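Homework help thread (please don't just give me the answer)

Our assignment gives two proteins as sequence + structure token strings and asks us to describe the second one. The first is just a warm-up. Here they are:
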Amino acid sequence: MSKIALVTGGSRGIGAGIAIALGKAGYTVLVNYCKSDYAASSVCEKIVKAGGTAEAIKADVGFYRDVQKMFDTIEEDFGPVDVLVNNAGIEIRHPSTEYDEATYDLIMNTNLKGAFFCSQRALRTMMEKKWGRIINISSVHEERPTGNRSIYSISKAGMWMMTREHAKEFGPYGITVNSVSPGAIRTDLNRKVLEDPAYEANVLKNIPAKFIAEPEDIAGIVVFLASEESRYLNGASITVDGGLALN
């Protein structure tokens, strides 16, 4: 029986790339999404066409009740989650003096609160099985400030500490918890700014690899972290940024 993998925010961007890669690797993939039925269904169709098994599951992970309902449904229909990928995220760029409370709550609830309570729910059954994988999709901004995205960066810094806390607490149960910190990736979150040639040129100037990655460049690392081959890797943050952090 294949292992069950839940990818939050799996209907587009990095999440879609991860979901498809896990499906090809033989996992039964639950593609979580919040808004677009069509986008989530399209990801599932790609997985099925490649010979995998997938189902879309709608829930806003920023709400505790949605998280609980989502896990109830998964556990009833498929069984406990073996691999959790906390990918759902929102990035809204403003000067720090211009954020309002609603925007603050939206970003923090999705990026950090949602990841925490999804992890909490998954960890309970992982502890019983004495096996589990949690992969948090963070960002280079967990430690690299750039301005005009302070709340996003704060949420990712919190995710990094959550990764370390959970790795230490649950490692004795055969559970590994790691994070992946992407740099510049062509996703819906940043596609608009990257359409500005001057902005893209400025980004590329600081990347030694001299290209901006695609979601697939993150997916392979997540598949490795989900596997038995990664069993001794715990509490790590893997930076995937083409060398951006070297500047």
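The one we have to describe:
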Amino acid sequence: MRDENTESLFTKAVEEYSDMVTGLCLLRLGNRQDAEDCYQNVFLKLLKNKEMLQAESVHLKAWLIRVAINECKNHYRFRCRHKTESLESVTLFYEDEHDRRLMAEVMELPKLYREAIYLHYYIGYSVAEIAALLKVPQNTIKSRLKRGRDMLGKIIAEEEAI
């Protein structure tokens, strides 16, 4: 594969999937600087993996999510001993006030539910795809989505009551 073609495919992948990878890293790590580090590592690995650049977009998207999850896990191991920002800083990623408020509510959920909600509603993955990505049974994902929706409903109801 020519270098120009590699560069073109890489640029297209970054443009298409950078928001998704950034959002996933922010959700998993809760720290913008750590998320940016993981984001860079994910796309550096993509640049080194020329075969994946040529893969179908469905496979590339799944590969990027899997690599992002693994990068976040690796980064989290080291971060456990260091002070980090609060999860509230994640909402700054969104420009629209409504999106920021909704993401703030999602961020109040426990990590398991937050991740399932994000992958399903923000990225658009099915239950089966999320189960495969996270390596858990489909029923586990269904439970996380239901519990996450229930918790979001309570949070929204409490805010409306105020």
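TA reply:
I won't write it for you, but here's a hint about the kind of observation we're looking for: The chain has a mean pLDDT of 83.
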